[in-house]
Amino acid sequence: MSRNLLLCGLLLIQVGCSTHKPILYPNAHYQQVGADAAEADIKDCMASAEQAGASATGGKTGQVVSGTVAGGAVGAAAGAVGGAILGHSGRGAMVGAAGGATAGFLRGLFTRPAPSGAFTNYVDRCLRERGYDPTGWQ
Fold first, then answer.
1. CA neighbor of 130 nearest in space, from 20, 21, 46
2. Cα 117 from chain centre
3. Beta bridge partners of 134
4. What is the pLDDT of residue 98?
5. Is the pLDDT of residue 83 over 70?
6. 20 with 137: CB under 8 angstroms?
7. Between the chain's N and C termini, which has fewer beta carbons within 10 Å?
8. Cα 40 to chain center, whole Å?
9. Could you read off the pLDDT of 98-109 as tens digits, one per residue?
10. Mean pLDDT computed over every residue of the chain
11. Contact assessment for residue 128 and residue 22, using Cβ atoms and an 8 Å cutoff
12. Residue 136 Rama label (left phi>0; alpha psi -120 to 50; beta)
C-alpha cells in the first residue's frame, strides 16, 4: 500500500516538474536529420536561450502563491454561501477558505509553468536558423 502511494507521489512530481518543449513540423530538414538529432538541437537551443538570460520557467513560486491565494478566496466565497444557507456563514467561509487554499496550493505545485515569451521566441528562432519548422509548444 505505501509503495503504491510512493509511486503515485513520484509520478505526480515528475509530471509537475516536466518542461514544455517545442513541437517540430516534420519538414525535409527534420526528416533528413532524424528525431534524435532534432531532440539534441532542441536541448542545445534551450540551453542557449537560458545562457542569454531567458527563463525556461515563468516563476514556479509565484504560481504556487497566486494559486493558493486565489483558491482561498474562491473557497471562502463558496463556503460563505453554503454556510449562509445552513445558518453558519462564518464557519462555512473558514472551511471553504482552508479547502480552497489547499486545492490552489496543490494545483500550483503539480502544474507546469509556461516558459516566458522571450524563451520560446529565442528557441523558435534558433531552431528556424537550423532548418526546423517549430509549430508550437507543449
1. 46
2. 14
3. 24
4. 72
5. no
6. yes
7. N
8. 22
9. 777 676 666 666
10. 77
11. no
12. left
What is the grid cell recorded at 130? 537550423
DSSP secondary structure letters along 83-123: HHHHT-HHHHHHHHHHHHHHHHHHHHHTSPPPPPHHHHHHH
CB 21 within 8 A of CB 134: no
Which helix H or strand E contains 72, and what residues bound it?
helix 60-86
Q: Is 137 helix (H, G, I), strand (E, B) or coil?
A: strand
Burial class (CB in 10 A: 0-12, 13-18, 19+), 71: buried
If phi > 0 it is left, if psi is from -120 to 50 it is alpha, else beta; for residue 14 that is alpha
Cα-flanking dihedrals φ and ψ of residue 5, to 5°?
-65, -40
Q: What is the pLDDT of residues 47-63, one digit of tens each?
A: 999 999 998 875 545 55
Instruction: Tell me if 96 sits within 8 A of 79, measured CB to CB.
Output: yes
Closest to 60 measured CA to CA, from 21, 106, 20, 109 = 109
The one-letter amino acid at 111: T
pLDDT of residue 13: 45
